Every structure is written in structure tokens, then in C-alpha cells.
């Protein structure tokens, strides 16, 4: 091997040793348009945050404190947010616009009666006739609805009369009523209860059948149909 080749080999070994000594050291390179770079391991480059990013992070931490300080500055929730789903639905059900189930109420029944022309007796008889037509063709659900509408009208009249008689004060509401008119209303109401009980019996709603038969028997204890249908419901 010539002297020149030996010299080249020696220079290559020195360069290799110098490269090995530089491995594992931290090198910082700053470019004009890039953040600071750090070499922690050979071939592993990690970006370091710039001073501007550090300042933004500190400002954000000061503006949005964590823990109790954030909870103290949070605004109070409106009352509805503290209610359960059932409580919200109960409140909505009190509003006529969102009602799904209407309780028995004389005022509501009176408003419903305003939807129909004629006297309460005429409306009750009309709903009874329409319910009978549906019952004949086995339309028990529709028949029950018609009977229910007639019951709502005439039962409201009955409660109004009973309330006036029970209080003793009266407002002059029942003084001028014709006895024949009152008797006809009660007879129609009794028939509506018995007919709706028949619908409940066909639909296997036995408890509702007993309830309607009991209401009819309160109006007329001698009603044979009410006794018969309540007995059938008990035997089912």
C-alpha cells in the first residue's frame, strides 16, 4: 500500500471517530422560518416551542383558571335545568297546548261542551247514537270514544248540580232547570255508562267495565244491564 493510500485511510478513521463522539449529544439548530429544533437521539427530531407559543399558553392559563375558581365564575343554571324529565313533562301537561291526559275538571268539560251546538242533553243523545252505530259494526274503540264524549258533557252537568245542592249556597244555576230535562240527562248518562262498559267488556278492559257499571248503578241501582255486564267482567 502506498503512502498516499495510508494517509487517506487514516483521515477516514479520524472522521469516523469524530462522528461517533458527536452521537447522543444535543444539537440546536435555528432556522429563519422554523422553531427551535433539538436532536436528543440519533435520527429523532423534536420540535421545541417558540417563545411566542409559551407566552400564549401562559395567557390562556391565566384567562381560564381550573378547579374551584372556574366553578365560582360559572353562571347559575335556570330553574328548568335543575328539574328531572318527569317534572318537566308534568309541568307541560298542565298547559292545554301540551296536554296528553286531562283530569276530570268541570271547567275543561265546559270548554269541551262549547265545541258542540245545542244543549248538553242534545249533545249527549247525539254522541250516544253515533256510538251505537259504531258498536253495531264492531267498532268498539270508536264507539267508546263517542260514549266518552257524551259522558264528559252530561257528567259535568251532574257534578255541577250535585255541587250546588251540597254547598247549599247555590248560584241560581239549578233553580230554573226543568225536572224532565234533568231526568232525561241522567237517563242518557246512565245509558252512556252502560254502553261504554259494553265496549270495555269487548276490549277486555274489565276494570274499566266495573267502574262504568258502578257509575251507572249509582244513578240507577236497578239497572239490569249494569249488573249483568259487571258480573260478566268478574267471571272473565
UniProtKB/TrEMBL annotation:
Domain of life: Eukaryota
Gene3D superfamilies linked: Tetratricopeptide repeat domain
InterPro entries from the UniProt entry: TPR-like_helical_dom_sf (IPR011990)
Region (Disordered): 1-76, 158-184
GO CC term, one of those recorded: cytosol
Biased composition (Low complexity): 57-72
Positions with biased composition (Acidic residues): 166-182
Positions of transmembrane segments: none
One of the protein's GO biological processes: protein folding
Annotated Basic and acidic residues bias: 1-10, 38-55
MF (Gene Ontology): Hsp70 protein binding; Hsp90 protein binding
Protein name in UniProt: Uncharacterized protein
Species lineage: Eukaryota, Fungi, Dikarya, Ascomycota, Pezizomycotina
Amino acid at each position: 500500500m502506498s503512502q498516499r493510500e495510508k494517509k487517506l485511510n487514516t483521515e477516514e478513521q479520524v472522521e469516523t471517530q469524530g462522528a461517533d463522539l458527536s452521537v447522543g449529544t444535543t444539537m440546536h439548530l435555528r432556522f429563519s422560518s422554523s422553531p427551535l429544533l433539538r436532536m436528543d437521539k440519533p435520527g429523532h427530531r423534536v420540535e421545541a416551542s417558540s417563545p411566542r407559543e409559551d407566552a400564549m399558553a401562559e395567557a390562556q392559563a391565566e384567562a381560564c383558571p381550573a378547579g374551584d375558581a372556574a366553578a365560582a365564575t360559572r353562571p347559575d343554571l335556570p330553574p328548568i335545568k335543575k328539574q328531572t324529565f318527569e317534572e318537566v313533562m308534568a309541568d307541560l301537561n298542565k298547559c292545554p297546548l301540551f296536554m296528553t291526559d286531562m283530569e276530570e275538571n268541570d271547567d275543561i268539560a265546559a270548554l269541551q261542551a262549547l265545541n258542540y251546538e245545542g244543549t248538553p242533553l242534545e249533545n249527549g243523545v247525539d254522541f250516544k247514537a253515533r256510538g251505537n252505530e259504531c258498536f253495531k259494526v264492531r267498532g268498539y274503540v270508536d264507539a267508546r270514544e263517542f260514549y266518552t264524549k257524551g259522558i264528559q258533557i252530561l257528567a259535568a252537568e251532574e257534578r255541577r248540580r250535585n255541587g250546588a245542592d251540597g254547598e247549599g249556597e247555590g248560584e241560581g244555576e239549578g233553580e230554573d232547570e226543568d225536572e224532565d230535562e234533568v231526568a232525561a240527562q241522567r237517563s242518557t248518562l246512565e245509558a252512556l255508562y252502560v254502553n261504554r262498559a259494553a265496549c270495555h267488556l269487548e276490549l277486555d278492559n274489565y276494570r274499566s267495565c266495573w267502574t262504568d257499571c258502578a257509575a251507572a248503578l249509582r244513578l240507577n241501582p236497578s239497572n239490569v244491564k249494569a249488573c249483568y255486564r259487571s258480573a260478566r267482567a268478574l267471571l272473565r
